Amino acid sequence: IDGYYDGANIITTAFAEHEGSFLVGAAAALKSQTGKIGFIGGQEIDLIKKFEAGYIAGAQAVNPDIVVESSYLGAAGDNAAWGSPDKAKEIALAWYADGADVVYTAAGGSGRGTIEAAVEAGDGNWAIGVDSDEYFVDTEEQQAHRLTSMLKRVDTAVYEMAQQVQDGSAAGGFYPFDLSNDGVGYATSGGHIDDIVDQLEDLKAQIIAGDIVVPTSPEGL
């Protein structure tokens, strides 16, 4: 899961995190009242830059004038970046105070600091979760500030691979999971984006059709 190994009897998978991030970026821009949003990454590595690139591209797709702040919690190899909620909270609080009203965090456990910051910043300030639907690990107070989460559907990948093994159709190789096979997506828990789902689904369809090509690095924007 989430890697590549060459072998006739090995099944490997990876996820189009940039595509899912595009949709939550669009959601952020559509729901922002200030025209300013933020992205916090864990380690500054190519994988997390995919999240950043997709998020910015999605936001710009619906609002070309959107302002996006970006910050990373550590350099490549700095494992503390995945478990520094205090640092994420400090960054997010500063952004909220400066007019940003949505912050997306792709930094493992550090993201818990962002939702705490959104709560402290008050009504109208949002946090976007990552990988799983973080609404279900939030407190009731935090749920009121959880706009959505970018879903990385490891469950879908594991189920599909296990099903292939069970029915005998499994073959070694690389299997990508993206929007076209529900490998990534976005959460609607809490109902905070119900009013923009049609717009997000239209963007999703354009990505699947190839009409929108989502960049995989900020340099591609």
Largest sheet: 6 strands, mixed
Helix content: 25-40%
Average residue-wise pLDDT: 96
CATH-derived architecture = 3-Layer(aba) Sandwich
Extended strand count: 8
In oligomeric terms, what are we looking at? Answer: single chain
Query: What count of structural domains?
Result: 1
Low-confidence runs: none
Your description of this structure?
With 221 residues, this protein is α/β, with parallel strands linked by helices. The chain has a single domain (11-206), classed as 3-Layer(aba) Sandwich (Rossmann fold). Helices cover 39% and strands 21% of the residues. The chain contains seven helices and eight strands; from the N terminus they run E-H-E-H-E-H-E-H-E-H-E-H-E-E-H. It has a six-stranded mixed beta sheet with strand order 3-2-4-5-6-8, with helices on both faces. It has a two-stranded parallel sheet with strand order 1-7. Helix 2 (46-62) links the parallel strand 2 (36-43) and strand 3. The longest helix has 17 residues, at 46-62. The protein is globular. The two termini are 28 Å apart. The model has no long low-confidence stretch (mean pLDDT 96).
